[in-house]
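ARCHIVE CARD
CATEGORY: sequence design from structure
SOURCE FIELD: tokenized fold
FIELD CONTENT:
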């Protein structure tokens, strides 16, 4: 998937990042604990053996009382020709199920320098899940920004790379950083 945008003498090319970093390896507010028979999901240091509990309520209680979780959101997986993860159920009882939780403690909130405001914390946790979803669905982007020069003599186009970047889990951040918009996309002829 290559998309090309043009604005004045600048050209922006956006592609799928073929080698993105797992966002769970970054510094995160939340801890993602997932349990699934076929997929290794969530944080590598947050593995849990479901044989030791009888239901999700038991795991949630463990997180509250043993891990001192202050905020806990459920995680749901949809598995059909690929996987996607969300904090909201998918509504398909055949191809989706709960797969775990994302949680944070008061210590995590302080360590990230955040104020303990429920809406902000929940929004940050949901943001981390959306970022992880982009990673597992292969929707992480990279870009190249170039200056286009046209030779006055022969009209040949030359391109000079100004900036490149990768690991963008939201294409809109590329637009914000480069000053381009969706409407600047070049129609393929």
């Amino acid at each position: 998937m290559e998309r090309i945008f043009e604005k004045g003498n600048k050209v922006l090319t956006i592609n799928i990042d073929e080698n993105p970093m797992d966002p769970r390896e970054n510094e995160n507010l939340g801890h993602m604990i997932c349990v699934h028979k076929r997929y290794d999901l969530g944080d590598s240091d947050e593995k849990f053996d479901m044989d030791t509990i009888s239901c999700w309520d038991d795991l949630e209680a463990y997180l509250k009382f043993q891990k001192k979780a202050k905020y806990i959101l459920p995680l749901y997986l949809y598995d059909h020709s690929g996987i996607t993860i969300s904090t909201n159920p998918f509504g398909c009882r055949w191809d989706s199920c709960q797969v775990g939780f994302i949680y944070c403690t008061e210590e995590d909130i302080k360590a990230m320098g955040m104020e303990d405001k429920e809406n902000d914390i929940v929004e940050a946790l949901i943001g981390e899940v959306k970022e992880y979803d982009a990673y597992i669905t292969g929707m992480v982007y990279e870009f190249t920004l170039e200056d286009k020069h046209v030779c006055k003599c022969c009209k040949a186009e030359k391109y000079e790379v100004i900036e490149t970047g990768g690991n963008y889990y939201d294409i809109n951040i590329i637009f914000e950083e480069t000053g381009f918009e969706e409407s600047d996309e070049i129609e393929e002829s």
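CARD ANNOTATION: The radius of gyration is 21 Å. The longest helix spans residues 118-136.
SHELF: design records, drawer C
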